[in-house]
Amino acid sequence: MRKRVGTLCISMTLLLCTAGCGSNPDAAPERTIRFSWWGGESRHQATAEAVRAFEAQHPDIRVQTEYGAWNGWEEAAAAALYAGTEPDVMQINQNWLRDYQSDGSGFLDLNAYSSIIDLSQYDPAVLEMCTEDGALRCIPISETGRVFFWNETTFAAAGIPVPDSFASLCKAGSIFQETLGDSYYPLALGWYDRMLFTVYLLQCRYGRDWVTNGALQYSEAEIASALETVDMLEKTHVIPPLKQITGGGADSFDKDENWITGRYAGIYEWDSSAGKFIDSLEEGQTLAVGAYFTDIGQYHGGFSKIAQSFAISKHTADPAACAELISFLVSDAEAVRLLGTERGIPLNQKAYDICDTAGLLGDISAAASRRMHDWVGFRIDPDFERAALKGTGGVYEDVFTGLSYGDYSVSQAAERLYTGIQAALAGEQP
Known about the structure:
The chain is α+β, with helices and mostly antiparallel strands.
């Protein structure tokens, strides 16, 4: 069950070998396109298999695949987009449409390829989220939100059930420390996880969108109250300090020995990422989808977003081949069964029906997705994931690293977060 993920941006070429290849003068000329994505080991394996199946059905198209872990991926993709050397087909996040081309024009309008990609299989409201100035810049794969995942084995060893309330989570820190030792924590949150958890806390308490019409809906004092809670969790041994997490040397928890061995017993992660976290656990450990906490406030905090999308570069020499690949990945029966819920529950209705019939909607990813959809009432603001905020060295990392390392007080961290977001929303450098 324990797996290792390949190095970021490992690139491999998948070659299709057929009888008589290169000897048939009537054979269609080979067309080559590049396809990139990020994810965990299970997503890599499933997607590579789907690509091989596509090549078998389209022997004239060769697909060069490029994939790796998320850490550093966006920065590398941004550099390629700015240089015009990006792959033909890309798995993207929604913020890329604005961050790297202000009007999304770096990606083709997929309305022009509706004869290849069946757009009728999507809710028009979902497609609208992928549309800039009337142009459909990407095909949405799934919708996702953050949920709690708990290692039931570790909690059992501590003699307590997995948390069903915020109060029980807060009590678990000292229990873990006393019964299991200083290296065990009920929950692990990286710096971006802490930002998302902060929004969750605030929306549970106040019930407001994070941003409305380009304006932040929370005051600096309200933000400070949430940061005080995050700081309290670290000081009471509920979450490990960021210095300890960074010192582990892993770029994501599924590759962190503390998660793999159960010393970190909980995470707050995208429901669509469940597969890589359960696959990375050592044998004998079980993972459960946790409940959202009703004792934080009267509202349902946290937001959902388009998990990932597929887009076609404006620089591609073969847009039709790219569209064929996307259509195959999101709706072909063989591809859908191979991919399952690796990228979440499909938004494509045909793919959803295939997964349902094949019994693929009963795994932990599907359970996490249902839990998220039953709870979450907010949608992400398009600017929330702007590179200046979310990127390496951006405002979020600065705030939560500074708070954890003791470089910022709670009030200083709140001021930095508040002013940084305001600047980004105004189009200024945070």
